[in-house]
Amino acid sequence: MKLIIATQTSLALPLIQDLYARQQLAAVWLYDVTGEDSRQLATQCSMLGINLLVMDPERPQVLIDHQKTLQADAIVSCYLSFLFPASMVQELKGKLLNIHASNLPEWRGADPLFWQIASGAGETFLTLHQIAAQADSGDILFQQKLSIHPYDTHQGVNLYLSQKMPLFITQWLSAGGMDLKAQPQRVLQDKDKPATRPDSNAAGINWQQSGCLDIFNLARACNPQLGGAAFSFNQEVLYLLEATPVNHPSYGLEAGTIVHIGEPEGLLVACHDGVLRLDVIYLSAGIFSGLRFAERYQLQAGQRFDSYPITKREKQDGRNNSQYNELCR
Predict the structure, then answer these.
(1) How many helices (H) and strands (E) does the chain have?
(2) Domain segments of the chain: what residues?
(3) 306 - beta bridge partners?
(4) Sheet holding 123-130, edge to edge
(5) Where are the stretches annotated Disordered (predicted)?
């Protein structure tokens, strides 16, 4: 079986190299070669002598003709930021596939990992599905469940999944590949939240609404591609890259208020459900530990951080108390 891999990032390189080594790679379709990461991937493919085609979404017939010329059995999309045009989906029906990082139909959208990490999920899925007219709605061919470590960041999970993709595709091929019967996705329910591409609002901390674990997970989800979870102090935007819920009295202080500054506890801030240690903060002047930031800018207990403007979104039902208790130890 021969596959074409459609991508735009070197995160797909482990899969490309594995298929190439097993002589099951027909070509690589590369999108957005203006980025440094894409250029590096193009260089790697050229060095290996891989058939490389730069995709132009405005010229789908070129891609269709290329697939027919190579007689590739399927095109597998991964880490791709655009949707294939309807003409391609129709022409290559059943042969146009995508790897999505969620248990579809949960978290359909451009960045499922962000929302899974931000909600404190302990696991994710690699899901190979057929591409349909509606994004991420096609029938499912193969799935694998994978764990998310409580301390994983967005980029960390992406790298982990990247390393798992070669075995994932190998297992799919061994199980029957294109001969496997595709299974329709279950009916979309209200609990199945969309995974839209996060913006600055999604990365904002609302001290009044978010608990310790909410902020802890949001910082992980925003690290590093959004620079951290945003909040403000004296009208300057700060970015929280790492935080830890701790066992410490909040003294009844309002959420967002500094509870304590000093060794060995660090910079402690009250939340509505406990106390959070701000471990790593990024701002225009550089990256600081929470304690060094507080000492450098002469913060004092009782001062209050401000929320960053965000679009209110519904909290995940059922807080993971076991995760919270573990982090507080």
Answers:
(1) 9, 14
(2) 3-179, 212-328
(3) 232
(4) 52-54, 25-30, 3-7, 74-77, 96-100, 123-130, 140-147
(5) 310-329
Q: Residues for the chain: how many in total?
A: 329
Q: How far is CA 270 from CA 1, 163, 222, 248, 312, in A?
A: 57, 39, 21, 9, 20
Assign 104 to helix, strand or coil.
coil
Q: pLDDT tens, position by position, for the chain (329 residues)?
A: 999 999 999 999 999 999 999 999 999 999 987 888 989 999 999 999 999 999 998 899 999 999 999 999 999 999 998 899 999 999 999 999 999 999 999 999 999 999 999 999 999 999 999 999 999 999 999 999 999 999 999 999 999 999 999 999 999 999 999 999 999 999 988 888 899 999 888 999 999 999 999 999 999 999 998 999 999 998 899 999 999 999 999 999 999 999 999 999 999 999 999 999 999 999 999 999 999 999 999 999 999 999 998 434 333 333 444 444 454 44
- Rounded Cα distance between 164 and 14, Å, is 9
Structure tokens that stand for 230 in this block: 């945003």
User: Per CATH, the architecture of 212-328 is what?
Assistant: Roll (3.10)
| Beta carbons of 310 and 202 less than 8 angstroms apart | yes
Q: Please give the model's pTM, rounded to 2 decimal places.
A: 0.90
- Tell me the CATH number for domain 3-179: 3.40.50.12230
Tokens (6 digits) for 164: 């798992």
Report helix, strand or coil for 240: strand
DSSP 8-state class, residue 308: P
Same fold, 3-179 and 212-328: no
What tokens does 314 get? 């519904």
